[in-house]
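Schema walk-through. Below, the input block comes first and the output block second. Nothing else is stored per chain. Lengths vary across the set, and this one has 486 residues.
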Amino acid sequence: MPGILIENVTVVTLDPRKPHLNGHQILIEDGAIAAVAKRVRADGVVRRIDGSGMIAIPGLVNAHAHLTEILQRSFRDNLPMELWRGERARTEERARLGAEEIAAAAELACAEMLKSGVTAVVDHFSTRPGLSVSKMQAILSAFERTGIRGMLVPSLRDRDFVRLAASGVRHRRRMGEPGRPEPWQDEVREVIAHLHARSLSGVMLGPSSPLNCSDRLLREVIAVAERLDLGIHTHLLETRLQAWAAARLYPRTLCAHLAKLGFLSARLSAAHGVWLTDREIDLLAASGTSVVHNPASNLKLGSGIAPVARLKSRGVNVALGTDGGDTSDTYSIFEQVKLCAYVSRVASTDPDHWITADDALRMATVNGADAVPAWRGRIGRIKPGYRADVVLLKPGLRLRPLTDPVRQLVFSAGGDAVHTVLVDGNIVVEAGRLTGVDEHALARRVEPIGARMYRLYRRGRRQADPSEQTAALLYRRLNRNDALRR
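--- output ---
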């Protein structure tokens, strides 16, 4: 791969001793960062980028997303998660999206991310009426076409925790009868077999949430992950209803149960974690499990505020995610960075427990990379030996006067400052425009799909299934009866 030299740029280092370096050069060779210095030897460079007046940051990592939810962007409001999820799933069920439609939706989400400085994404992929090899390959093809570094995480489940917890039986020894699981192992192996050696894409295993998975399914996931050396990604204690159900279904805390199964480990990243207890946080820290904070989604769905400061103080690696296009309504990690810092100041009145700008930016970069085993130690920093996932920001009026780059990137910047984006040394955004995707043609492909989805949503929104009806009843009881609270 031809060498690239970025010249005279301010480099954000993520090093608290020297948070940024002015007037430096970044040498990129064979897709990796070869040198960062005032002056570097640049033999064989075929492309020079003038970074004068620009800021170089590590590519942002979206460590928890649902890309195809972009088709239902902002469809609904004023619903807690379990009811929101039912409406989303029913709309997908009626739409019966094909592989080409799924690929177009994922490509649009990836394009949005790249233009806002996100260079790597974990897609917790689920679709109705079910997973298939062709649908999973559609996500991988979107990664390849846009040039983003993508991790496909097929969602797995074999039961409905709402109906199980509401059935009135506490601490079931066998945790209820699991349904018939999809033939996911063979399909995942087939998808992995199609990944070529130099692909930027990868695969992890994605139990929807431990509450929606029988112990049998979780043990299968652990065994396959260990055998194939894969990461695991899941939702964990996102809502108050989930916290109540966990206390009802398990004789110990949910994380204690997962620890006993061997599910908690450095392979695992868990999205949300809003309703974790202090003891559960200690179990996550001891196991090396990462937590992915999704502040916009948690606020929109009224799920609560994750205990990020407590997680951080106990040594848990905390990353950032956007969740889906109908929960945070954006795939911008810049927005999550700002919210992450701000909501910590609502969760605690003690400034010592607030998330700083430096904390938030680390969560969006190196911590996000560390949450994914395949990316750990490979991306998330502008440092020799790391892959060249680099974003060049051109400060506009929102960043003027420029005095403290890190704080201003967190509190003032947005995706509009993104000028150039490199993923693995490939330029995928240049002067604010995607290099490998025709944005207008992509929008024309997706608009009619979204319009059809919206018609189906409006037609079926009042047809709640029994699980949603049960969830709505439980939320009403939780809201008025403290006895149901954890």
